[in-house]
Every structure is written in C-alpha cells, then in structure tokens.
Amino acid sequence: MLLDGQMTQLLSHHALMITSCLFLIFLTYSILQHSYRYMIIVAFVMGVIYDSYYIGVYGIASLLFPLIVLFVYNIRKTVFENRLTRIFTIIIIVSAFEFFSAVMMWAFQLSNFNFGEYIIYEMAPSLALNICYALLLQFPLERFYGMTKAYETLQKNTKL
Fold first, then answer.
1. Distance of alpha carbon 76 from alpha carbon 51, whole angstroms
2. Are 109 and 116 within 8 A, CB to CB?
3. Residue 67 half-sphere exposure toward CB, CA atoms < 13 A
4. Contact 16/125 with Cβ under 8 angstroms?
5. What is the DSSP letter of 111?
6. In a 3-state reduction of DSSP, which class is residue 59?
7. What digits encode the pLDDT tens for the residues 57-85?
8. Mean pLDDT, to the nearest integer, of 37-50?
9. b/e map of 60-76 (b: 16 or more CB within 10 Å)?
10. Model confidence over 126-145: pLDDT tens digits?
11. Are 11 and 129 in contact (CB under 8 A)?
C-alpha cells in the first residue's frame, strides 16, 4: 500500500489524479492461497489502514476491501480459469473500488465533485494504469502464487 501511495504521488499532476491499486491486484491473487476468514480479516485491517493513510475517514475502504474479497471468492472458479478472466476481474474490481469509494464520499458529503470530471480525470487514467500493472504483473504473480497447483486445488476444494 505504501508503494501505491508513492506511485499515485509520482504519476498525479495538477488536473490529473491517477490512483495506483497494486494492493487490489495482489489481493485478487492472494485469495487462492489463504482461507476465506483470513482474507476477510486481512482485507478489513488493510482497509482500516488504507482509510487512515489515504482517505482520512474510517469505513470506506474497510467496507469495500472485504466486499471485494467476498466477490472474488464467490466467482473464484471463473476468475482463475484463464488469464483473460483475471484481467477482466481486475478491471471490474478497480472500477468498482474507485466508483463506490467516490459515491460513498459524495453521499456522506466528504467531497464535492463532478462525476463527469471524476471519470475523465481520475477513474479512466487510474483504470488504464492498473490494467497495465495487471498485464505486467500477471506472469510474475502466476509464478509467485503457483497458479497451476492452486487451480488444481481450487477444482478439488470448492467449499468456503
């Protein structure tokens, strides 16, 4: 998450805000290696840290990260079937996180912004950056997480 913050600061400019979501990419792959309860707890704790470090208001990422884990756990057989579905899942996860965190900040009047400008100047560039990250990190993460062994294990053990 610290790397995400540094990359966000490095890539953001005056009008353009690019958010790095490397943590969400790693979270997606980590689901294969750890139990459901463990991942929910880790996602909640990391969400609290994310909220305190980046957002300044507790509850946004600490709610969204466990929901992302729940979502990926429920579709994990499909997600880890091939590389293309992993890329699309990361696109969905990053888009959902960016959109729902913005909606929650707007709904609780934590920020006042135009959604059209938000999509053009923040969400689209962030999504493009994170797609590049996902493509570049796909092979190293598959090797690191042992995707072939994990996928075989996933096929045998389908219970949560």
1. 26
2. no
3. 13
4. yes
5. -
6. coil
7. 788 899 999 999 999 999 888 888 888 98
8. 93
9. bbbbbbbebbebbeeeb
10. 999 999 999 999 889 888 87
11. yes
Please name the amino acid found at residue 74. N
Sorted by sequence, the CB contacts under 8 Å of residue 47 that are 6+ apart come out as 60, 61, 62, 63, 64, 65, 66
Q: What is the largest CA-CA distance in the chain?
A: 51
Report CA 47 to chain centroid distance, whole Å. Answer: 11
Q: Rounded to a whole number, what is the distance in angstroms from the first to the last CA of the chain?
A: 27
CA 93 to CA 142: how far, in whole Å? 18
Closest C-alpha to 15, from 97, 118, 127 = 118
Residues across the chain: 160
149: pLDDT strictly greater than 60: no
Residue 40, token pair as written in the block: 């929910």
Distances (CA, A) of 30 to 24, 73, 102: 10, 11, 25
pTM for the full model?
0.82
User: For residue 109, with 0-12 CB atoms within 10 Å meaning exposed, 13-18 middle and 19 or more buried, which class applies?
Assistant: exposed
The first and second tokens of residue 81, run together, are 């079937």
Both tokens assigned to 99: 């959109």
